[in-house]
């Protein structure tokens, strides 16, 4: 069973690290100030008393240590070869998903106007193919339902589309469009 938990402000830096993975950017790369801005947003939004943003995460699991020299007592070798991946470096995440609930104007299919938007679904490359992203998105979908957002939007890469399709997402007829204006 995968242990998914609700993200807290303590997870903000790790959620930003996972976001960098989405963009193909290594940790610590000099790629502008988006990391600091994203962390500030997460710190503020995840701490709100009635948050309209939530994240769900999976901590890095117990992992075997394969590069450790065999100098330990043989009787404790079996237990010593398993260590917590986060023991020395703080809480590291294996995967996470973030979403927001927006209040829009209602319509025939959504009279109350609440819509969820899922984003920042990412898995650390060392922990892929274990169902962590699926578990995080399932928890986030449950949160959307609890918040009254029965319509959920997202943008998917071709690689991730089968995951979302398996959870009931379908392509929409209308294309996504974007306008980017230079900062003033």
Which SSEs are present, and which pair or pack?
Blueprint: E1 4-6, H1 12-22, H2 34-46, E2 53-59, E3 62-64, H3 77-80, E4 82-84, E5 93-103, E6 114-123, H4 132-146, E7 151-154, H5 161-166
Parallel strand pairs: 6-7
Antiparallel strand pairs: 1-2, 2-5, 3-4, 5-6
Helix pairs in contact: 1-2
Keywords:
alpha+beta, Aminopeptidase, 5-stranded mixed beta sheet, two-stranded antiparallel ribbon, 7 strands, globular
* Whole-angstrom Rg: 19 Å
Could you describe the largest sheet, including whether it forms a barrel?
5 strands, mixed
Spans of at least 5 consecutive residues whose pLDDT stays below 50 are: 64-89
The CATH architecture assignment turns out to be 3-Layer(aba) Sandwich
Strand content: 15-25%
Short structural description:
With 184 residues, this protein is an alpha+beta fold. The protein is built from five helices and seven strands, in the order βααββαβββαβα. The termini are far apart.
